[in-house]
Amino acid sequence: MKKIYSPYDLFMLFCLISSAMIEVADSLRAKPSVREVLRNYDIRKYEGIPTLEAYADAELANGTALSWGIELRYEENYWIVEAALRKNHRDGQDVLQEFPEIRTDTFEELAPNAKKATEWLIALAKNIDLSAI
Known about the structure:
Number of domains: 1
Strand content: over 45%
Structural class: alpha+beta
Largest sheet: 5 strands, antiparallel
């Protein structure tokens, strides 16, 4: 029998993502080469597509700006999860590392896959060698 998901399940997913990004930001703040960390979480329509964006931006002591981010959106009957580490610059962003994009048509598959993406971001923030960037 197929489980019916409630608004509570969706809010718990939002909480999972928010908590993960808090952990990413805290991990970055603990690194001596990080000057400042900003964290943001938005739920909005982007070009008509319902989107959740959460990210932690870190400015390094050498002036380099990095962004750990996750995006969750519902597009053309699919849930899509994307996560990446990006280097910010005057002309935009470059992807340094990327979690494989996930597409699913069920919420049942969305939640555990979003969790995998957040775990990847947390591990990346904790283990990254910022001197190599």
